[in-house]
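Why do we bother with a discrete structure alphabet at all? Because it lets us treat a fold like text: something you can write down, compare, and reason about line by line. To make this less abstract, here is a complete entry for LacI family transcriptional regulator. Read it the way you would read a sentence in a foreign language you are learning: slowly, and without expecting to understand everything at once.
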Amino acid sequence: MVTKKPTTIKDVARKAGVSISTVSRVINDSKPVTNEVKQKVLDVIKETGYVPNPLARSLVTKRSQLIGVIVPELTDTFSADILNGIEEVSKMYSYDILIANTYSERELELKSINLLRAKQVEGIVIISWDIDEELVNVLENIGIPVVFVSKMTGNFDIYNVSIKNAPATKEMTNFLIGKGHKRIGLIRTNLNVPEIADERLKGYKEALEENGIKYDEKIVKSCNSSYDDGYATAKLMLKGKKNKPDALFVTSDEAAIGAINACFDLGYNVPDDISVAGFNDIKFAKIYRPKLTTVSQPLFDMGAVAIRMVIKMINGEDVGDKIVELPYRIMDRESVSERKEK
């Protein structure tokens, strides 16, 4: 098979009977061209399948139309939903995104920043749970707009999109209490960012206290956010316990689904014997059976708002508040039921 050489701007100009600069004007919409000439050039571009060289185009327009996105883990459903929002809005404004996956490693995060700058991105959205002074200082000195999508700002003066963690956890705990649950076990995740885990524990404790329920550290456990960790921790909490929780609140949907399977493997029905609630509202929360009752974070909207903030900053528009906290909702599905006194 003979590989055909790609069409160049010179080929388009020759076929359209115009100069290379005229073709460039049509592509970049940089200077006036008659409608007749413009249409002739566009017809040739369509016919030949010519694709403009983005590097050459950026030299003319002084714009790369690229925005970098740094994610902690591409396979994580949380990051994937945020990326969907970023991609949707970037298309609306004719931007392409370059994604750097860091596997939650700080060294790779810092390398990704340099890589994206070398690619001439005009701004960066960074999804990061562990914000520290080194990262903030590096991003402040790269000379382009940066917006974080992070659950906590760490008291840094940064542009950030998130939700309120303590109020969300408090509301879900109150929801479970309202369903008649008095002994509510908490499996808190996000251990890699203690600030988030502590905020969520605070909301849980406040709800218990306001409802006259004593805090019991024996039914509060910590683990990572994965399915396997949720399964193992729930099994440990429930196995052989006479005074077991009548509800489990797990602050990660994936870990909550693991907890549901642990309940079933120990002979408990969800939600008849034990109710289980999660946090995030990932896509699997609606697919799994029983459908997971959870705190819904507007993940798509978080990505959409973050990329829009970056684009506004690139264009010199007013962004408004630096810290944007989007509303959350309690999604009442199938994994939580009314507590029946026995």
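What the structure line is telling us, in plain words: The first strand starts at residue 66 and ends at 71. The chain has a mean pLDDT of 87.
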